[in-house]
Design brief:
The chain is of the alpha+beta class. The protein has two helices and six strands; from the N terminus they run H-H-E-E-E-E-E-E. A hairpin with a 4-residue loop joins strand 5 and strand 6. About 5% of the residues are buried.
């Protein structure tokens, strides 16, 4: 099991599947790695169209995140299948910082200085 934890950590992951036997977990980790290296997913590739004009983006620990004019879009890039996308409506956010390993995202707004 230590080998599986090391393999997961080397890919920036903390978990991959639930209740898998040790050998199945190692095989799943290696299959995931090969799928991303060769861009050969189980499902045919599809194009993910992101809306708006990108203001900021970041890729950390298998998660791509971007902000456009009105949305925070998050793509989880983990697994052997296509990325999973979700979007959250936001307004007025100009930048952000994230740490998916701790489930933390900080949104930054620029407020005008009143004088």
């Amino acid at each position: 099991m230590i080998q599986a934890v090391i393999e997961l950590g080397s890919d920036g992951l903390t978990t991959l599947g639930h209740n898998l036997a040790h050998t199945e977990l190692l095989a799943s980790i290696r299959n995931r790695r090969k799928a991303w290296i060769h861009m050969s997913f189980r499902d045919p590739p599809s194009v993910l169209r992101l809306s708006g004009r990108t203001k900021a983006y970041e890729v950390v620990a298998g998660v791509y995140c971007q902000i456009d004019d009105s949305n925070l879009t998050i793509l989880k890039l983990e697994g052997e299948t296509q990325p999973i996308m979700s979007a959250i409506g936001i307004e007025g956010v100009r930048d952000f910082a994230m740490d998916p390993t701790q489930d933390i995202i900080a949104l930054m707004r620029y407020l005008p200085i009143l004088g």
